[in-house]
């Protein structure tokens, strides 16, 4: 009897132990970011706000993450919308999800191999006479606009978007489509009236997941980015492992600021979705 009562807590114990390490890291980072010579201070956060390099890095990070996430959602939605009956089969679905098996840095190396000035595509264009030399090929990797970073994340995250949307499309009853067609609705009316209410919550959740991962990731921006502007994660790594110990609190403050921004976005998305669900329960859709 006692074992049956304590069993749920014992099953929950590995999760608690697993979460101890990241929570310890979070609290240690918060503590280090508000300490100087043993006293509480917000000086490190003030230094961040006065740093042009950090503000440029924040704008660069959010711009790249937003573009990569939006493109991933649009491409994933289009592919799922028009091919979901085909993707329900095992082999096509396995092919589409294949990129998810590889780590992000492997996909970053693939982008360098294919799209760098001396990459495969550049060599093919030179051999076929379309380019005179490798300098004529556009700079898509290690560029100041983050094109290589965006391409890597779009290529990697589109299968994840399809993974999230495919069960939603498979669950929509065919009778809904028949009703819209009977009333004279076309493709756009079918999308807005039948599909949009189902996929909107999943799109928002997927946006938050992909955006949060992209804006805080390190390996792809370090591999495909430039020294300036750099993503916040790369800048924090440089501050943390640099020769100056005085910049370590700045690294903690930068990552705490980024984490709080992500939490704020997640809370706003969650609150907005709850408001929509509450209106739907009361029969109000607008």
From TrEMBL:
Localisation: Cell membrane; Membrane
This protein's UniProt keywords: Membrane, Transmembrane, Transmembrane helix, Transport
SUPFAM superfamilies documented for this protein: MetI-like (SSF161098)
UniProt key word Membrane: yes
InterPro entries tied to this protein: MetI-like, MetI-like_sf, Sugar_ABC_transporter
Family (UniProt): Belongs to the binding-protein-dependent transport system permease family.
Annotated ranges, domain ABC transmembrane type-1: 54-269
GO CC aspect terms: plasma membrane
Entry's transmembrane regions: 65-84, 105-125, 145-166, 198-218, 250-272
Gene3D superfamilies: MetI-like
Protein's name in the database: ABC transporter permease
Source organism per UniProt: Halobacillus mangrovi
One GO process term, biological-process aspect: transmembrane transport
Keyword Transmembrane in annotation: yes
PANTHER family referenced in this protein's UniProt entry, alphabetically: GLUCOSE IMPORT SYSTEM PERMEASE PROTEIN GLCT, TREHALOSE TRANSPORT SYSTEM PERMEASE PROTEIN SUGA
Lipid bilayer topology: Multi-pass membrane protein
CDD domains: TM_PBP2 (cd06261)
